[in-house]
Structure formats: structure tokens, C-alpha cells
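Re-run requested by the PI after the first attempt was lost when the workstation crashed. Everything re-entered from the original request form. Ligand of interest: iron/sulfur cluster.
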Amino acid sequence: MKILIDEGKCVAAGQCVAAAAEVFDQRDEDGIAVLLDENPPAELADDVRQAAAVCPAMAITIVERTGSIPTATVAE
Ligand code: SF4
């Protein structure tokens, strides 16, 4: 899984840190969330999903990976 944080949405609530402290932290100056690990190991996946679920600003996006590389079609 890959994690994205939308800093513009983050309201510095800190719920993500409470749910997954190995993956999320907050900036000292304004409390905005920062990622400690944007590709966390599988054993942290449930904690990360919990963090995304409890984020009041819905600022956390999780990109699940299936193991295959997505392909893009380019229109000519
Ligand atoms: S829970 Fe959401 S709003 Fe709160 S610090 Fe984390 S990303 Fe920001």
C-alpha cells in the first residue's frame, strides 16, 4: 500500500498518529501530519486503514497495490 496525505485538508487533529504512530507524525510548528513511511509493511496495514477511517478531514488516501503494474492507454 502507498499512502498520500493532503496537507491542504489536514486539520492537525492527530487521530492518524494515535492510530498508527509508526507511519504518521505531526509537524511541531503547526501539527500538520507528515508521513514517516509512505509504503508501510503489511503488518501496519490495518493501523493505517484505521487512521484513514478516523481522520476527520479525510486527508489520508490509501492506494492499495495488487501486485500488477497499472498500464495506461494513450489516445492518439
Ligand atoms: S487525522 Fe487527518 S486531520 Fe488529523 S493530523 Fe492526521 S491527517 Fe491531519
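Saved to the shared folder this time. Strands lie at 2-5, 24-26, 33-35, 60-63.
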